[in-house]
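Practice problem: Arginase
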Amino acid sequence: MFCSAPWDGSPEEIEPGNRIAAKAGLKHQSSFSTAVRHGLESTYFFGYNPAIVRMPYGVLESKLNLPFLCYSVLPGCRVYDRGDLSFTEVPNDEPYNNLVQYPRSVGLASQVLADAVSRAVAAGHSCVTMGGDHSLALGSVSGHAQQCPHLCVIWVDAHSDINTPLTTQSGNLHGQPVSFLLRELQDKMPLLPGFSWLKPCLSTSDIVYIGLRDVDPAEHYILKNYDIQYYSMRDIDRLGIQKVMERTLEQLISRRQRPIHLSFDIDAFDPSLAPATGTPVLGGLTYREGMYVTEEIHNTGLLSAVDLVEVNPLLGASQEDANATASLAVDVIATCFGQTREGAHAVFDELPSPSSPDESDSEEQVRI
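Answer key — C-alpha cells:
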C-alpha cells in the first residue's frame, strides 16, 4: 500500500512534491513470537512511499523494489504494492496561534494515515512508514495503538520532537508529535483544528529516546520533569550502545512482552553518513551503532511497526549525498526485519545431499 501526503511545511525542508509517507511491513503473529526473527517466513510488506524519495535520484525506489526486497535484502518475504492513499487538500489552512503551520492539513492527513496503519496491523501486518518528516508519527503511532493499545515506542532521533503548540519556537509540527501522543501532557495541549480525532495513546514510561543531541529548553524541561527515559549521544559515548539497548529493552519489555513501535529519524546518524536530511546535527550515531539498535530490536521478535523519516534526496548537496542517505535508509529497514551484518539468510530445513534414491544414474551424472 503506497500513499503520499504533504510535509508539515517547515521552511528549511519544504519543496514542491514533498510528501510524508511510508514503505514496507512484515507480518507478525498475535503472540509476537519469533516468527519474524527466524527466516522471515510468511511475511508481507505494506508501504506509504513518497515521490520525493523516489525522484529524482531513484535510489530508494531501485533498492526498495519488490524483486530486490524479496531476493536480495530480505529473502523469504512477499512484497506487495497496494496503491496510493489520497488526501483532501485544505484551502486557507491558517496557522494556529499565528505560529503552528498547516494544522488542518497535517491533522487530517495524519488521520488518514492512522486509519491505514490500523487496518494493516489489524490484518496481521507490521507497517513501516517512510517519509517525509516526523509529524507522520502522529498517524502511524495512533493507528498502531488502535490495534495494540499496550505498545511501546523507541524513538531514535537527534531531536526529541516533544514541544507543545505553546512551547514551539518554529511552529513546525514535526517538532511536536510526541506531545500529542502522551497522556501526561494533555492538560498542556490546546485543541488544534484538524486534531479532534487524535487521542493520546502513550504514557511517559512507554517511550525511550536514543541519540538525542539537539533538544530545546522546553523539551528538556518536559523530559526531566515528566521522567521520560532518554539516552543522549553523551550517554551513548559513556555507556556504549550495547548497554543503552539493554536498558531500553529492560524498561520497555522486561515485565511483559508487548509490541514495539520503532520511530527512526535518519538524522539520528551523523551527517557524514546521512547528509540528505532536513535538520542534520553533528556528532550522531555511527553506522555500527545504528545497525546495532535495529538488530537488537529485531532480535526481540516484538517489532510491530516502524517509521523511517526525514530521508530527502533533494537536500543532498550532490547525487553521492543522496545515494548515501538512501542506501543507509535501506539498511535500516533491512536490519529491522532480519538482515544482519553477516547478511540476510533464508531458512534452510536441511542441506542438500549429493544424491537421492529416486535419482537415476544419468540424472546424477548430469547434476555432477
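Discussion: The longest helix spans residues 103-122. Students who identified this feature from the C-alpha cells alone can consider the problem solved.
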